[in-house]
TrEMBL record:
Domain of life: Bacteria
Segments traversing the membrane: none
Name the UniProt record assigns to this protein: Amidase family protein
Ranges where the Amidase domain occurs: 31-448
Organism lineage: Bacteria, Bacillati, Actinomycetota, Actinomycetes, Bifidobacteriales
Disordered as annotated region, ranges: 106-125
Pfam families to which the protein is assigned, alphabetical: Amidase
InterPro entries xref list: Amidase_CS (IPR020556), Amidase_dom (IPR023631), AS_sf (IPR036928)
Amino acid sequence: MTNTAHAVNRTSAIDPTIWRVVGTPLVAATRPGPLSGMGVAVKDLYAVAGQRVGAGNPTYLADAPVQEHSAPAVQRLLDSGADVIGIARTDEFAYSLAGVNAHYGTPPNPRAPGRVPGGSSSGPASAVAAGQAAIGLGTDTAGSIRIPSAYQGLWGLRTTHGRISREGIHPLSSSFDTVGWMTRDVQTMDAVTQAMLPDRDSAALSGEVAVCVLPRQMVDADVAEAFARSCERMRNTTADTHHHTKAAANTAADAATGAGEDSAVTDTAVTADTAGTATAKAAAKAATKATARNGTWDELSLDADMFDGFLDIFSVVRGYEAWQANGDWVSGHMDAIAPDIAGRFRNDALINEAAYRRGLERLEQARAMVRSLIGNKVLLMPTAATVAPTLAQQDDTETAAYTRQQTMRLTSLAGIGGLPALNMPIATAQGLPCGVCLIGPAGSDKALVAFGKELRRRLSA
């Protein structure tokens, strides 16, 4: 892999809506490695040696101490040969999916000018999309890697919850926070994934694919059409090459697996009952119904109420943990926080411990159900419910709230499951970026990226 393939555009003026601080580089690689020649934009939640963590808020930044050591995730990139170009913007306290920051402005969306960049890993995403960095290091709690990747036409990986240390990262919700990264192409995504995850995958892929069938009201028509068109093309090319696709994914990830050989298309329904009220035993039965096929390409119908149940769990657990992590500082600085972010924290402060404990119990049940449902398949679903809203749409409070709700319904499945999720960029008929989200079993991160790489090759054939 040559350095020229990852050359970045650093000649233009520094955009303060993208970058908080930059260097030449800001932190040099510790040694040559597989990522030599690649520059990293680090989300302003990570500890970077010699720098402060600002968390998207200038008042918080002013009070923050200088970090003595880089977060393990940052250090691993440096040890793999990458340079840290700079620290890039985040939505305030990572508590948004739009990419808007009231204090520093909204980073541009180079792939869809005049539209929001997506967040909360907005700065790293815009830096990568603009060619100013090869790698965007971010976090994903409710979709903060997947959404900016979908909005800006990037590859983006949310890793399995807990697989990479979150030490040195400003927290939002420990039950959902994960490390992730974004790149412009799948080859770089694969290289970064291999470097960041040197251990073997703990789960293999069966080679089976389940296409998520959603109620029409959950996804805008232009995104739904792009998703269906891409899945149909991938299904047609995969049907004749199932063994090669599966072997490519698991061999590249250094994992062993087995799968059935016959091809079929089936339709299995999962309703709110199987998601919200089933015992672990009943959930396992539902998952068995969904996966006990020898086919390589199934359809899986999911009920809208199931996603609403996921959101309810998520809002309680995430909300309580967000206040526990940030409440001491936030409660004394409400006037220094954007109104929408402050409003979320005020709601979080009302969640009591008893409600949180019940939420954790529901999360445990729902997580077991989702993992049983996925099994060793790859689930495909739209990454976001819409294309990136225009700046005018985002300024409309009602429209912004609706878009956030619709998008979080989709992103909640991987979050509740604690599963790896990969955005594969596609486009609508009008040429606007959107995404196919590949969700795999816990611990299958490297195989999932390799599988996505193979699907992209077939989609482009």
